[in-house]
User: Fold this.
Amino acid sequence: EAFKYLSIHYSWYARYAEKGHTAPKDVHPDKLKKAHGGRVNITQRSPHKSKELLDKPEEYALLAEAFTDFFQILRAAVEKYLPDDTKELSFYVEKLPLGASSPCYPFGGFVVNLDACTWGHRDKDKRLCLVFPLGRYKGG
Assistant:
């Protein structure tokens, strides 16, 4: 049975972005066509903000500011203990459109789960996901 809880995503996504690793090197990306015909949807090439980030920018700004010190500690630890992952994650964040940045660099965003309870799992679309429960807990 699935657990239900409030989950707020303040993230940049490139979920539908094209990989390009099999594309011909001598053809400009704007000139590519699908193998079965038709144009490639170029609007999916750009990273985009999550719905919550677009709908509630004030909340995002307040949370990002409140977690500034925490994010700096997290960044230092990830850079020290996971340098290869940091390099891979930061490549994406450094390419965000219009010089945008992420308060939780090298990650492209953060998620707030309230009263969360979930089975152990691995996110399929991400290389690395860090979870930090905040609160006073007993028995688990």
Notes: The two ends are 20 Å apart (CA to CA).
